[in-house]
TrEMBL record:
Biased composition annotated in UniProt, kind: Acidic residues: 563-602
Listed Pfam families: Tubulin, Tubulin_C
Segments of this protein annotated with the region Disordered: 473-517, 533-602
Catalytic activity: GTP + H2O = GDP + phosphate + H(+)
Family of the protein in this entry: Belongs to the tubulin family.
UniProt key word Cell inner membrane: no
Biased composition regions of type Basic and acidic residues, renumbered to the chain: 552-562
GO molecular function, one term: structural constituent of cytoskeleton
GO annotation, cellular component aspect: microtubule
Gene Ontology terms describing biological process: microtubule-based process
Positions of the Tubulin/FtsZ GTPase domain: 77-274
Name of the protein in its database record: Tubulin alpha-1 chain
Key words, A-Z: GTP-binding, Hydrolase, Microtubule, Nucleotide-binding
C-alpha cells in the first residue's frame, strides 16, 4: 500500500494544470454572412476573393502552401471558414437570390469549388424591384431554404459571434426578401447581433423609379431588428475609383472590390492577432449610443494605384486625418461638417499605439471633426499587424499600413432627407402604389413607414442642433436627455396588414426650438411634413421648452392630452396646413375635427 500510495502521489505531481488563456487571446467566435439579392451576390464574389487570398486559401478551398502555414495561422480563418475533415475551407456564408442568373456565375465560376452548393439558394423569377413582392410574394420554399442554409451554418459554429447581412435598400429582393429573412433570423437567433452592410440609393443616380419606396419600407422594417447598419453609396465608391484609382469608367466589379477592402479591414481584428482587438459586438457597444441611431458610415485610407505606392509613403497622422477627408468616404458628404458621436479606427500594419493617440489628440485640438461633448473619448481603436492583401485586377496598390474608419455621425441626414422627399413626392400622387397593393400591402403601411424614418431623421437632427446650441452659448446640461425608446412593434409578417403603432405627435426640441410631425394613417387626414433635400426643418420659437424629445403615441393616430402643450401642437399643425400645398379639402376637414376634439379635451 505504501508503494501504491507513493506512485499515486508521483502521478499527481506530473499532472500539469492548464493555464487559463488571457481574455485578449480567447477566440472571438464565428461570423456567418448572408448575401441577399443581386447586389449581395456580386459583393460576395469580390469579398471572398479577397479574404481567401489574405488567408492563403485557393479557389478550390485548399491551402495554397500547406507547409508554410501552422495551425495558429489557420485558426483565424476558421472565424469565416469551416475547416472540413478533407482539409478544405468552406465559407460560412449563405447566398439567396430570387432568380439564378447572378448566382450561376458563382456555380460556374473560378470559386465554384469553394462554396457549399447547398448554401446557394435561388428561385425562378425576380421580385421586379417591388418591396411588396419581395416581402409578401416571395415563394415560401425560397425563404425556407435560405433560413435552413443559415441554420446549418449556425449549427456548425461553436460560438456564434454575429451575422453579417449584405444587401441593397433599393431592390425588390434586397429590400423585401431581406426583411423577411432578418425577421425570421431575429426570432430564432434573438441574441446574435445582426449587422448590415447595405447599399443605399444615390441622390443623382437610380436603377429603379421605385427605389424611394423600397428604401423607406426596408429602413422602417429593419430599424428595430438590425444591431447597426454600415451605409454605402455607389456614388461615393465611383468617386474613389475616379480620383484615387484613376479609373475613368469603373464598373460594378471595381466598386465591389473597393467595398471588399473596407469589409476586410472590419473583419481583420477577428481573424488576425493584434495588440488591440475590436470584435463586432464591441463595435456595436462603442458606436451605437442609442438604439435608433445605428446608421454608420465608413471610410478607407489610403487608396492608391500600384505606381503611386512605390514612390509615396504616409505617416500615422496623415493616415488618421485622411480617413475623414471627403475623397475617402463611402457615403457622399464631408464628415468635417457633421456632428460625430463615436468612431472606430481599425489600423493594419506595424503602427505604434502612442502615435495613434497623438494623432487623435491632434484631431481633437484642431477641431477637425465636431464631437459631441457627452462622449468625451469618442474613439475605439483596433490594431492588426497583418498587412492587407491586394487583387491585381482591382487596381489597388499594396501599402505598408491602412486604416478603415467607422463612425456614427449626422452625415446620414442628407441621404435620409433626400430619399424621404422623393418618397413623399411619389406618394402624394400615389404613383406606382398599385403594384405594392396587389402584393398584399395596405396604403397605411406607406404612411407608417415614412413616419418611422422621419423619427430617425429627427433624432439625428436633435443631436446636430444640440451641439450647435452648446457652441453658441448653451449649457452642457441640455445633453443629458437622449432620444427616447420607441414602442415595441410587431413584425409586418406576424401582424398581418394591420398597423402596429402610430407616432401621433413626435416633437423635438434642440437648440431652443421644436420640430413637430403629425401622425396617423393616410386615411386619417393627418399631414406629415417632409423637407426638401436642400431645406431644413422649420423650428417654432419656444426657448423655454425642455431640451428633450417627448413623444405622444396612440393607436388611434390622435395625440393625447398633455396640459398646455396641445395648444402649441395645434398651432404648429395649423401652420403646417397653411404651408403644405398638397393638402386637400378632406384633410383640412379632418384636421379641424381633430383640433375641436383636442379643445374639448382641454
Amino acid at each position: 500500500l505504501r508503494d501504491t500510495w507513493s506512485g499515486f502521489q508521483t502521478s499527481i505531481d506530473k499532472v500539469t494544470v492548464p493555464v487559463a488563456r488571457p481574455e485578449s487571446e480567447m477566440p472571438l467566435g464565428e461570423v456567418i454572412s448572408l448575401f441577399v439579392g443581386q447586389c449581395g451576390t456580386q459583393i460576395s464574389q469580390a469579398l471572398w476573393e479577397l479574404i481567401s487570398v489574405e488567408h492563403g486559401i485557393g479557389p478550390d478551398g485548399t491551402l495554397v502552401d500547406p507547409g508554410a502555414q501552422t495551425e495558429d495561422d489557420t485558426a483565424g480563418a476558421e472565424v469565416l471558414f469551416t475547416h472540413t475533415q478533407k482539409d478544405r475551407f468552406v465559407p460560412r456564408a449563405a447566398i439567396v437570390d430570387s432568380e439564378p442568373t447572378v448566382v450561376d456565375e458563382i456555380r460556374n465560376g473560378l470559386y465554384r469549388g469553394m462554396f457549399n452548393p447547398a448554401r446557394l439558394v435561388t428561385g425562378l423569377e425576380d421580385m421586379a424591384n417591388n418591396f411588396g413582392r419581395g416581402y409578401y410574394g416571395c415563394p415560401q420554399n425560397l425563404v425556407d431554404q435560405g433560413m435552413n442554409a443559415v441554420r446549418k451554418e449556425a449549427e456548425q459554429a461553436d460560438k456564434l459571434q454575429s451575422c453579417l447581412i449584405f444587401h441593397a435598400f433599393g431592390g425588390g429582393t434586397g429590400s423585401g426578401t431581406t426583411c423577411r429573412l432578418v425577421e425570421l433570423l431575429d426570432a430564432e437567433f434573438m441574441k446574435v447581433p445582426k449587422i448590415e452592410m447595405a447599399i443605399y440609393p444615390d441622390y443623382h443616380k437610380s436603377c429603379s423609379v421605385v427605389e424611394p419606396y423600397n428604401a423607406v419600407l426596408c429602413s422602417s422594417t429593419l430599424d428595430e431588428i438590425s444591431s447597426f447598419a454600415i451605409m454605402i453609396e455607389n456614388d461615393a465608391l465611383t468617386k474613389i475609383c475616379n480620383e484615387s484609382l484613376r479609373m475613368e469608367r469603373p464598373a460594378y466589379p471595381n466598386l465591389n472590390r473597393v467595398l471588399a477592402h473596407a469589409c476586410s479591414g472590419i473583419l481583420a481584428p477577428l481573424t488576425f492577432d493584434g495588440p488591440l482587438t475590436a470584435s463586432l459586438p464591441q463595435l456595436q457597444t462603442n458606436l451605437v449610443p442609442y438604439p435608433r441611431l445605428h446608421f454608420l458610415q465608413a471610410s478607407l485610407n489610403p487608396m492608391f494605384t500600384h505606381d503611386i505606392t512605390i514612390h509615396e509613403s504616409i505617416t500615422i497622422q496623415e493616415l488618421t486625418i485622411g480617413a475623414f477627408n471627403t475623397i475617402n468616404q463611402m457615403m457622399v458628404g464631408d464628415p468635417k461638417e457633421t456632428v460625430m458621436m463615436a468612431a472606430a479606427l481599425l489600423y493594419r500594419g506595424q503602427i505604434p499605439i502612442q502615435e495613434i493617440n497623438s494623432s487623435i489628440d491632434t484631431i481633437k485640438k484642431r477641431g477637425l471633426i465636431g464631437l459631441v461633448d457627452w462622449c468625451p473619448t469618442g474613439f475605439k481603436i483596433g490594431v492588426v499587424p497583418t498587412l492587407p492583401a491586394v487583387i491585381k485586377a482591382s487596381g489597388i496598390g499594396k501599402t505598408n499600413r491602412q486604416l478603415t474608419a467607422l463612425y456614427n455621425s449626422t452625415l446620414i441626414v442628407s441621404p435620409l432627407r433626400s430619399n424621404l422627399h422623393k418618397f413623399r413626392v411619389l406618394l402624394s400622387k400615389k404613383a406606382f402604389v398599385h403594384w405594392y397593393l396587389q402584393e398584399g400591402m395596405e396604403q397605411g403601411e406607406f404612411q407608417e413607414c415614412m413616419e418611422d424614418v422621419l423619427n430617425i431623421l429627427q433624432d439625428y437632427l436633435f443631436v446636430e442642433k444640440t451641439l450647435v446650441h452648446n457652441r453658441t452659448g448653451g449649457g452642457a446640461a441640455d445633453n443629458v436627455h437622449g432620444p427616447p425608446p420607441r414602442p415595441d412593434r410587431q413584425s409586418r409578417h406576424s401582424a398581418g396588414t394591420q398597423n402596429s403603432h402610430s407616432d401621433a405627435g413626435a416633437s423635438s426640441d434642440g437648440a431652443g426650438g421644436s420640430a413637430v410631425f403629425g401622425g396617423g394613417g393616410v386615411g386619417g387626414g393627418s399631414v406629415v411634413s417632409v423637407p426638401a433635400p436642400n431645406s431644413s426643418f422649420r423650428l417654432s420659437p419656444s426657448p423655454a421648452a425642455p431640451a428633450s424629445i417627448t413623444r405622444q403615441s396612440d393607436h388611434t393616430g390622435q395625440g393625447k392630452d398633455d396640459g398646455g402643450e396641445d395648444d402649441d401642437d395645434d398651432e404648429d399643425e395649423d401652420d403646417d396646413e397653411e404651408d403644405d400645398d398638397d393638402d386637400d379639402d378632406d384633410d383640412d376637414d379632418d384636421d379641424d375635427d381633430d383640433d375641436e376634439d383636442d379643445d374639448g379635451d382641454d
